[in-house]
Amino acid sequence: MDVKKSSEKNNPLLKRKEITFFLDHDSQGTPQLFEVKTAIASMYGVSDDLVYVLNLRTLAGTTRTVGEAEIYDPPGTTRSLLPKHIRLRNLPGRGSGSEKDAS
User: Fold this and answer.
1) Assuming Cys at both sites, which of 20, 41, 90, 94 could form a disulfide with 7, CB separation 3.0 to 4.6 Å?
2) In terms of pTM, does the model score above 0.90?
3) Euclidean distance between CA atoms 60 and 98, whole angstroms
4) How many CB atoms lie within 10 A of CB 34?
């Protein structure tokens, strides 16, 4: 899976980078959100904890997925800026029932 950014905006007021990206997945289905999150974190050289994928959309009839992500500089700001469902969706154990414990 190769993530290519299509746009990047630095938001100094909220201390984050807002990224629009796309990825092609020819030989496999749509990648899991956490796989995309890890790929973006390694692309920017930051920890997985600072990256939040907001959405992924696979274009109809293609093997191309487009998405949006945000990279926060201080990790504590995400609690006040991101909705809870986005924070829960980006947890590593998503789907294992551990979301209810995280807040």
Assistant:
1) 20
2) no
3) 32
4) 17
